Amino acid sequence: xxxxxxxxxxxxxxxxxxxxxxxxxxxxxxxxxxxxxxxxxxxxxxxxxxxxxxxxxxxxxxxxxxxxxxxxxxxxxxxxxxxxxxxxxxxxxxxxxxxxxxxxxxxxxxxxxxxxxxxxxxxxxxxxxxxxxxxxxxxxxxxxxxxxxxxxxxxxxxxxxxxxxxxxxxxxxxxxxxxxxxxxxxxxxxxxx
Length: 193
Prior knowledge:
Strand content: under 5%
Number of strands: 0
Helix content: 55-70%
Largest sheet: none
Structural class: mainly alpha
CATH topology of the largest domain: Rna Polymerase Sigma Factor, Chain: A
Distance between the termini: 5 Å
Shape: globular
Order of helices and strands: HHHHHHHHHHH
CATH architecture of the largest domain: Orthogonal Bundle
Radius of gyration: 17 Å
Number of helices: 11
Mean pLDDT: 80
């Protein structure tokens, strides 16, 4: 994952091209650009763990930021604008259309996440074994460090269901990792992925 992230362009605004270039107000453009630069790599890494596809993760985060730019005047007033962007990207990963294309092998990005680190590769392989709806809860809870209420909001489910998904996903991850080798010592290892 580190190699993949290192290969990304230095300026995340390149991904939005014309959308950023046509900003009507310089202060909005600067705020949006700062938010994009600060959060793009982390959100792509999180979505990559959810989708298990670097290309699809980039697409989803780019689409979410493009939608955010269209409403930035309102979104910037939210307590956490990044939460809105993450929510749009995660919901996009769960769309029926994307799942159908992926099953048919017609999605643009079906390759696996590259990793030279055996521990990261083991975690990604274990994540592959967890159903997507539980994997999303695990990444949102343990990587993005969202509360159960925030996970429930993003997923459109009750907090109790979010808690059950997270609990099951953690158990499954631990079981798969025990079969493969060492488990990361703390959630801080997730940040390196």
